[in-house]
Amino acid sequence: MPQAEPFTVAVPDEDIADLHRRIDRTRFPADFANEDWRFGMNREYLESFLHSWRHEYDWRETEARINSYNNYQVDFDGVPVHFIHERGKGPNPMPLILTHGWPWTFWDFEQVIRPLTDPAAFGGDPADAFDVVVPSLPGFGFSTPLRVDGLQTSKGVDLWAQLMTDVLGYERYAAAGGDFGAMMSGTLGFRYPERVLGVYLTLPSLPSTGVPDNLPEPGSTSQLVGMLMGPAMRTSRDDFAPEERHRYDVMEERWATALSHIAVHTTDPQTLAFALHDSPAGLASWLVERRRNWSDNDGNVEEAFSRQFLLDTVSIYWFTESFVTTSRWYWHTFRTPPQAVSDPEAARKVPLGMPVFPKEMVFVPRAAAEAAANVIHWTEQPRGGHFAPAEVPELFTDDLRAFFRQLR
């Protein structure tokens, strides 16, 4: 049985010095007529961001904040998995695994870990306490270096089941996540319904009771939405109730800014990786533009995230040299045929909580979700986009507590 070992983040001084040298040597392209970001990352913003990264940002301060949590790493047959494990302070903390996606990291959950583990310290009820587990997906962040090929969402689910039960000893636990983390959390519940108390998804991912023969072409919008919502789910604007149809329009708008990275990551991620592995400017441009496009803001990414947080995120990708393995996660996931759950009846009984953040990437008609799964908690959120735990941590925390309070 694999054993978890304490883990401390300690980036070598030379790696920080190397980053600074590379930023100093950045060669910027021309960027005319791009004040509105119509062509992608805006040069003026990127220059300012890189100046902060080079002259103002202190990685050691971030490192100390990460290390203030209980960090561990476990090896699953050559697959390293880093995770934070914080025990709850309350009469009966519920075990909860929180899973991120891309271009997230485990650090997207920083602002919710302590409110979830110690609600009384933040004005909440100790009865709502959780034991919180926040892993980094294999090949992401400090779940590196990854040298085992073929890691993707379906395999990751089985690793999470091992982590929670075999390594940490939890027989029953809850799951929550967004982006790939929603796919992971949903599949974890549907594949292991005897273990999972309930699933909370900021992006819809529903149980697949069968795999249709007429799957769309790889990389198409309908395939991408189907991968997230379940291959049996196919939606058009008319499938949404009249009061929901604006969400279909938001989804169409959002996917227009998502297809570029999907196309590269699912087709030839290694080609792009050589550039982004070598260039801090390139990596920051690729990651931060997605944060701007997919969060709830009016054109200024720092309305949704602090610059400090964005620098933390890019730094984690940079110092762990993990872009290549995070992008390969797409390549393998989108080439893995969807798997029907082995016990559809049990999967449909797993309680689901589904908040609707207005600037998410994917929406599903409420009636379709309730027909496919045991949705016992559906909430319309006033703000927030694709990165809810980092964008609107208070809303995320309060709503997640409300959902799981029903299952205690």
In short:
With 408 residues, this protein is an alpha/beta fold.
Distance between the termini: 30 Å
Helix content, binned percent: 40-55%
SS strand fraction? 5-15%
Q: What topology, given as strand order, has the largest sheet? A: 1-2-3-5-4-6-7-8-9
| Silhouette | globular
Largest sheet: 9 strands, mixed
Average predicted local confidence, pLDDT: 93
- The total strand number stands at 9
Taking all Cα atoms into account, the compactness measure Rg is 20 Å
Which spans have pLDDT < 50 for at least 5 consecutive residues?
209-221
- What is the H/E order? EHHHEEEHEHEHEHHHHHHHHEHEHH
User: What is the number of helical segments per DSSP (H or I, 4+ residues)?
Assistant: 17
Overall SS class: alpha/beta
Oligomeric grouping of the chains: single chain
Notes on the structure:
By secondary structure, the chain is α/β, with parallel strands linked by helices. It contains 17 helices and nine strands. The chain has helices spanning 13-24, 43-55, 59-67, 110-117, 153-167, 180-191, 221-229, 245-255, 259-267, 269-278, 280-294, 307-319, 323-333, 344-349, 366-372, 388-391, 393-405, and strands at 5-6, 71-76, 79-86, 94-99, 130-135, 173-177, 196-201, 351-356, 374-380. A nine-stranded mixed beta sheet has the order 1-2-3-5-4-6-7-8-9, with helices on both faces. Strand 4, helix 4 (110-117) and strand 5 form a beta-alpha-beta unit. Helix 1 packs antiparallel against helix 2 (43-55) and helix 10 (269-278) runs antiparallel to helix 13 (323-333). The longest helix has 15 residues, at 153-167. Mean pLDDT is 93; it is low at 209-221.
